[in-house]
Write a structure and sequence with these properties.
Blueprint (H helix, E strand, L loop, with lengths): L3 E7 L3 H12 L4 E4 L6 H5 L32 H14 L4 E2 L6 E5 L2 E6 L2 E10 L6 E2 L13 E4 L13 E5 L3 H12 L4 E4 L9 E2 L2 E2 H7 L31 H6 L3 E3 L2 E5 L2 E4 L3 H26 L10 H4 L11 E3 H4 L1 E6 L3 E2 L19 E2 L2 E2 L4 E3 L16 H17 L1
Bound molecules: flavin-adenine dinucleotide.
Flavin-adenine dinucleotide (FAD) binds next to helix 1, helix 2 and helix 4.
Length: 410
């Protein structure tokens, strides 16, 4: 192609589509290039019983009104993909599917976007290729024998697809907690190696927690206020889609709770002495969010029902006594390990100086790249707690597109 486009958006997930919506509203000529199908990550990286934990009314993309039959319901990934497809159709967004961007480079002030169909030239690029679609595994995974099946949470579908035997789930964030429960409900014997992950209740004081977190401004807290002293970001707290899931409730369902997975030593799986700390951390994080909401209710004088106990938070856990610090792998009956240890984005195809750092992650401020005309949308925790979630897209996409259009006009 010889023409020069005003903008190219890379990725047709919620972030890319939100950006495309605003570019279109500004009458800005652009294309959205998607390597697979619309909503590819939701189609290929979720387990069968998955449901979104942002309720329907909070999972709308910009320009859509909350005309929903089940506003507080939790969509399946298939329903959400259908929603994304209808969004593209209704707003007539210029999406090209099966168009992977293989290399993004820069020449003579323009971006060169290389796809199997040819190289496109554009003045601006918005990268919305996802920051949570490449699974991360700790190094300890390479020590495990090949007789053990290892898979990432994104490859897990259901208990029946796994080999007979017990399952070791590693990590108790969003995916780990939900997958451990999915396996326990299917009657599997489950070990859960825990970490310092927070927890959220599903309902509180008569409302959905997502609604309270939105109204109270909890989701708008800037990144600088919750980034860890190490500069790392905390994992997202465990939030069940339809009900609260806690370490206590998993334990009461028969999941064997362990400390952090350390590695394999002399044929034994070794775990840290930190389960108590992890349970305390999750309890405190849940209490912190409730306090934030209580303060808000008090401040604005809302007549909300009093705080109630959540069954998953008050159920007595059945903790192993004494705590388990190691397990003989050969006799454990464990046949599968599911790594629920987080995700990152894959930006290796960006070949532009100052666009990504030594760790392969975007260099940006609130989604605005340091290279003129380069933007990143959908990055987890980019500027606030809401960044990187579906409810965060409308605000972020509007801001980035305003910047892009304003800069191009000047
Ligand atoms: C298990 C899990 C559950 C989650 N549940 C929720 C939830 O319930 N609610 C919520 O708000 N958030 C949830 N999130 C967070 C979620 O990732 C984001 O809310 C949102 O989906 C991110 O959207 P995105 O468009 O940035 O990324 P994605 O949805 O990953 O979209 C990126 C798109 O870019 C495409 N792409 C990638 N590379 C290229 C390339 N080189 N060329 C062309 N296309 C490319 C991909 O195929 C993909 O379609 C969840 C995350 C995980 C991991």
């Amino acid at each position: 192609m010889t023409g020069i486009l005003d903008a190219i958006v890379i990725g047709a997930g919620s972030a890319g589509l939100g950006v495309s919506y605003f570019l279109k509203r500004h009458g800005y000529g652009h294309l959205v290039l998607e390597r697979g199908c619309i909503g590819e990550t939701w189609r290929t990286q979720r387990w069968d019983s998955f449901r979104l934990n942002s309720p329907n009314i909070r999972s709308l993309l910009p320009g859509d009104s909350p005309d929903l039959s089940d506003p507080w319901g939790a969509s399946t990934q298939h329903q959400f993909v259908s929603y994304l497809e209808s969004y593209v159709e209704r707003h007539r967004l210029p999406v090209t599917t099966e168009a992977p961007v293989e290399v993004l480079s820069r020449d003579d002030g323009l971006f060169l976007v290389a796809t199997p169909g040819g190289v496109l030239r554009t003045r601006n690029v918005v990268i919305a290729s996802g920051s949570l679609n490449c699974p991360k595994r700790p190094h300890a995974s390479v020590e495990l024998p090949t007789t053990l099946r290892q898979l990432d949470s994104s490859a897990y579908r259901n208990a029946a697809e796994l080999e007979q035997g017990a399952v070791l789930v590693i990590g108790n964030g969003q995916s780990g907690g939900q997958i451990a429960e999915d396996l326990a409900l299917a009657g599997r014997s489950v070990f859960l190696a825990t970490s310092r992950a927070g927890r959220l209740v599903r309902h509180y004081r008569g409302g959905d927690i997502f609604n309270w977190m939105t109204l109270s401004g909890f989701l708008d807290v800037p990144r600088s206020e919750f980034v860890l002293p190490s500069g790392k970001l905390p994992p997202r707290a465990l939030l069940g889609a339809t009900h609260t899931i806690s370490l206590q409730s998993l334990s009461a369902q028969g999941v064997v709770l362990l400390g952090r997975f350390v590695g394999l030593e002399n044929g034994r799986l070794v775990f840290g002495d930190d389960l108590d700390d992890h349970m305390r951390f999750a309890d405190e994080s849940s209490a912190d969010v409730k306090r934030f909401i209580d303060d808000y209710i008090r401040r604005v004088g809302l007549n909300a029902p009093p705080a109630e106990d959540d069954p998953a938070e008050v159920v007595a856990p059945r903790l192993p006594s004494p705590p388990i610090r190691s397990i003989e792998l050969a006799t454990s009956g464990i046949s599968s390990v599911i790594w629920c240890t987080g995700f990152r984005g894959d930006f290796r195809w960006i070949k532009i100086a100052d666009a990504i750092d030594d760790d392969g992650q975007p260099i940006h401020q609130n989604g605005i790249g340091f290279v003129t005309g380069l933007y990143f949308s959908g990055l987890d925790f980019a500027s606030t707690r809401k960044s990187g979630t579906i409810p965060g897209i409308a605000e972020e996409a509007a801001r980035l597109v305003n910047h892009l259009v304003g800069r191009s006009a000047s």
